[in-house]
Design brief:
nine-stranded antiparallel β-sheet; alpha+beta
Length: 366
Amino acid sequence: MKFRCERDVLADALQTVQRGVSTRPGIPALTGVLMAVDAEGLRLTTTDLEVTTEVRISVDAQEEGTALVPARLIAEMVKALPPDAVEFEADGAQARVSCRSFEGTLRCLAAEDFPMLRAAEGVQVSVGAGAFAEGVAQVARAASRDEARPILTGVLLEASREGITLAATDSYRLAFRELRATADGEAKALVPERAISEAARAAGGEEKGEVAMVLGSAQATFKVGSLILTSRLIEGEFPNYRQLIPEPGENRLAAPRQELLEAIRRVGLLARENSPIRLELNALGARLTSSSPDLGGAVEAVEASYEGEELTVAFNPTYVADGLAGVVGEKVQVELRDGLKPAVLRGDGDDFTYLVMPVRLPAAVG
């Protein structure tokens, strides 16, 4: 195989696919990037057997063929080259990279050991790239990082002809977002958070483009511009999150979103080692306090509109801050029934909803 390509184009493509390279020892083929040249250009593919990343770019194809090259090494080499055309040539055992006066050689890996990819099959969904990127950023933060509970480490996609819903929970908080989309059927897919966040990263750079998805029974594929990302699905039944949504709370706080977020982050600095942050809610707004036996304490008041009975409730500050960061708009509305039921955070519109469980406060003595 042989081709010629501008350095920046090749470097960007290699940088994208190398994030999907396996870190598992003992499987050399999975540390490589499969480079295939045909009449349509250059296709770059990496996989860790869970997520497969493929990027296609236009090149000056001089000879068709395939080569499996160490992914991180070729990416670093091309990135370090001067800004000019790069020539790449491989004969199966060895690859040669040249640019201006530089010439380097790389020993190829066994291309026949690279896993064969299956064609995507399933329900086809199309959604705006910007909305998809925003929705994933809002929802994925609620996915669990505990690999002992794999079902909670994913983001659930529910597609219908009316649109698509994204949902994630770690059992302490729940986030879901409804998106306008077109689909040719109904489907559910539980996608690993790492995979869908990578697709969203690419979608965030697509100006007014679309994300084309194929949601199957065992895998999901996301096509964003020149990127095609395919992920295995997580097996198991995702919790019925709609049953977790409480009835509208009688107590409502309407506060400046950014001001409340910054106050929680400041006061939360002294809520270490799983210590909660307390919110005292009354007609004046919210009074935030935190304390730690080893560090000290903090207090801050936020002026806001509050309807309901005076209430004191405690939360993990990180969980609340994540919800406030995901809410869209200048104002946030927090609905609560009491200090034991989940608080519901919403911003402009009702497309995004974030629930967070309070921390039980110790009973007063006396």
